[in-house]
């Protein structure tokens, strides 16, 4: 549908044109005062049918071209000296749709048939028959209609090509920027994360070799280093591959909950509803929301337990993460970059997110992601 207060749908415009042409042809035919015999009624019917056939010109231009051509020849044979206006409209529509060869062949056939139809109508003078045929469909009109359709088709092709070029340029720039970000991340973070990971691994190994107890903090640092290394590697791969093979999704949420449990937080995962396939973008967003929520709980909440609930609904996927930490409605924390990132991810998919302290204490994150928009 075209946008704007004064525009109508293309189908409505087609019908308006078809009815207008049919009415004009019928009025012209009635002005000839033909008899109401069977042949006369057939002529009137062909005039109306030829005009109304234009309503389908956008969907079936070749068929409409054939129908209007036959109707023009038919009402000429019935004795109606009426211009083949509907056929000209059909020629324009067929050329605009790109059917050049069929249009030329059909036009030549109609031009050749009109004098014969005029002779069949009762004219015995060949010159008069050709004159009537020339009046019904002049070659200049035919060429003008075809040229107009071809010109508009080429203009539309150039517009489509220009739009495609703009899209390709924008996509290429996005690819270049994505690769630039990947290089920057690799150069700035990979070394530091590798150092943290290696040093923590060495510290744990040395402590165990000496028979000394390994602190929970050191184990948590080692696990965080491993996870950061995996995440960075997956992020770099996603940036370089345009996210065609997303590394994390709904299937990886249980691993997040399990790792949170290994770090001292009693975390549980509950899945409700009938599980079904969801768009990859929704799965990635759910993973990131759960990941960021559990990370915030471990860093800031001072919580002992956390629960993750995933609710499969027919048209949406809802998630909720609760903890029993120290947050209260009176001491709501300032939203950080992680929370803003979660909200942006959810909003980009047409969903909504709410993150706030609970009345009974602790913090809750709720998000609902529609499935239709993300598919």
Brief account:
It is built from eleven helices and five strands, in the order αααααααααβαββαββ. It is an alpha+beta fold.
Please explain how this structure is put together.
- This protein is 63% helix and 10% strand.
- The protein is α+β, with helices and mostly antiparallel strands and 375 residues long.
- A five-stranded mixed β-sheet has the order 1-2-3-5-4, with helices on one face.
- A hairpin with a 3-residue loop joins strand 2 (305-312) and strand 3 (316-323).
- It starts with 9 loop residues before the first helix and ends in a 5-residue tail after the last strand.
- Residues 1-7 have low confidence and may be disordered.
Proportion of residues in extended strands:
5-15%
Major sheet size, sense and barrel closure = 5 strands, mixed
Strand order of the largest sheet: 1-2-3-5-4
- The helix-and-strand class reads alpha+beta
Helix fraction, binned, reads 55-70%
Radius of gyration: 37 Å
Distance between the termini: 22 Å
Judging from the principal axes of the Cα atoms, what is the shape?
Answer: elongated
**Strand element count:** 5
List the secondary-structure elements in sequence, H or E: HHHHHHHHHEHEEHEE
**Helical element count?**
11
Any low-confidence stretches, pLDDT <50, length ≥5? 1-7
The whole-number mean of residue pLDDT values reads 82
Sequence-ordered SSE layout with sheet pairings:
Elements: H1 10-30, H2 38-52, H3 61-77, H4 85-96, H5 100-120, H6 126-136, H7 139-209, H8 216-240, H9 253-262, E1 266-272, H10 280-301, E2 305-312, E3 316-323, H11 337-348, E4 352-357, E5 363-370
Helix pairs in contact: 1-2, 2-3, 3-4, 3-5, 4-7, 5-6, 5-7, 7-8, 9-10, 10-11
């Amino acid at each position: 549908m075209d946008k704007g207060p004064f525009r109508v749908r293309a189908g409505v415009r087609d019908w308006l044109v078809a009815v207008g042409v049919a009415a004009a042809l019928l009025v012209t035919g009635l002005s000839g005062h033909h008899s109401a015999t069977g042949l006369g009624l057939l002529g009137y019917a062909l005039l109306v049918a030829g005009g109304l056939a234009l309503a389908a010109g956008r969907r079936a231009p070749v068929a409409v071209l054939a129908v209007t051509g036959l109707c023009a020849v038919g009402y000429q044979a019935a004795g109606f000296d009426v211009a083949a206006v509907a056929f000209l409209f059909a020629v324009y529509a067929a050329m605009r749709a790109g059917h050049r060869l069929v249009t030329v062949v059909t036009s030549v056939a109609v031009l050749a048939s009109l004098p014969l139809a005029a002779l069949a109508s009762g004219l015995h003078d060949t010159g008069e028959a050709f004159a009537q045929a020339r009046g019904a469909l002049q070659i200049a009109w035919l060429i003008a209609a075809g040229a107009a359709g071809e010109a508009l088709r080429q203009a539309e092709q150039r517009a489509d090509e220009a739009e495609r070029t703009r899209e390709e340029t924008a996509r290429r720039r996005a690819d270049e920027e994505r690769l630039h970000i990947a290089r920057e991340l690799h150069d700035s973070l990979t070394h530091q994360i590798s150092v943290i990971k290696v040093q923590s691994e060495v510290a744990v190994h040395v402590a165990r070799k000496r028979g000394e107890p390994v602190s929970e903090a050191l184990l948590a640092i080692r696990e965080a280093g491993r996870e950061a290394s995996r995440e960075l590697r997956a992020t770099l791969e996603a940036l370089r591959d345009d996210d065609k093979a997303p590394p994390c999704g709904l299937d990886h949420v249980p691993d997040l909950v399990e790792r949170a449990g290994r770090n001292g937080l009693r975390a549980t995962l509950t899945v409700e509803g009938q599980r079904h396939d969801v768009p990859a973008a929704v799965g990635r967003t759910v993973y990131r929301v759960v990941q960021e929520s559990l990370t915030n709980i471990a860093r800031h909440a001072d919580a002992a337990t956390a629960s993750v609930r995933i609710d499969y609904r027919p048209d949406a996927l809802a998630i909720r993460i609760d903890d029993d930490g120290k947050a209260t409605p009176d001491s709501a924390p300032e939203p950080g970059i992680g929370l803003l990132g979660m909200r942006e991810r959810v909003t980009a998919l047409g969903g909504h997110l709410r993150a706030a302290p609970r009345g009974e204490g602790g913090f809750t994150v709720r998000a609902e992601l529609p499935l239709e928009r993300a598919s």
